[in-house]
Design a protein that fits this description.
Layout: H1 4-29, H2 32-48, H3 51-54, H4 59-77, H5 97-110, H6 114-125, H7 130-137, H8 141-162, E1 166-167, E2 173-175
Antiparallel strand pairs: 1-2
Helix pairs in contact: 1-2, 1-4, 2-4, 5-8, 6-8, 7-8
Length: 182
């Protein structure tokens, strides 16, 4: 059984912060009954923390962190699901966007220089390491890396132009217009 000093420590800290925590939870949850339930759960977590709770430099900060996490968990678990209509087209019905974009690749590759096409084909499509590419082409490793990077930039520019590819801020494809092979 935990000693009495633990309960005194938790009780004193709890009394000091309980009303502020209650207001915080009531504001975040907009349901006073749920806020009270969550308040009790936080109190139990403080007791279960044991002597570690009394050793905290800021019990208030810990209590509010637990409260914020409890609120976040509540909303994460409570996400409402939306029924989808039965007549929603199935993505599997049409060709995959990656397949459509990949169909544009051979045509665009054929429009690159032989040097760029070889760098892209060997390193990106066939999985050759840039170190192996450097050895095969008689280049230094930095030279091979530069060649591959320049080829990738020209491929990206050509894909952007030929297939009207648009990228987001992270470089992910967000839109393109399929272009038939030559």
């Amino acid at each position: 059984m935990p000693d009495k000093s633990l309960y005194v420590c938790v009780r004193n800290s709890w009394r000091q912060h309980e009303s502020e925590l209650r207001r915080f939870l009531a504001h975040k949850l907009s349901d006073p009954h749920l806020a009270e339930d969550m308040l009790q759960e936080i109190f139990i977590k403080a007791i279960n923390r044991g002597s570690g709770f009394c050793d905290l430099t800021s019990a208030r900060a810990w209590l509010f962190e637990v409260a914020r996490n409890a609120v976040a968990d509540h909303f994460r678990l409570r996400r409402e699901l939306v029924e989808l209509p039965d007549d929603l087209p199935d993505e599997a019905d049409g060709p995959d966007a990656v397949d459509l974009l990949a169909a544009c690749l051979p045509r665009v590759l054929s429009e690159l220089t032989e040097e760029d096409r070889e760098a892209i084909t060997l390193c990106d499509l066939q999985g050759m390491t840039q170190e192996e590419f450097a050895h095969k082409k008689g280049l230094s490793l930095p030279g091979a890396k530069s060649r591959v990077q320049r080829a990738r930039k020209r491929l990206m520019a050509r894909m952007t132009d030929a297939c009207q590819v648009q990228f987001d801020d992270n470089g992910q494809v967000i839109h393109f217009v399929p272009r038939p092979p030559a």
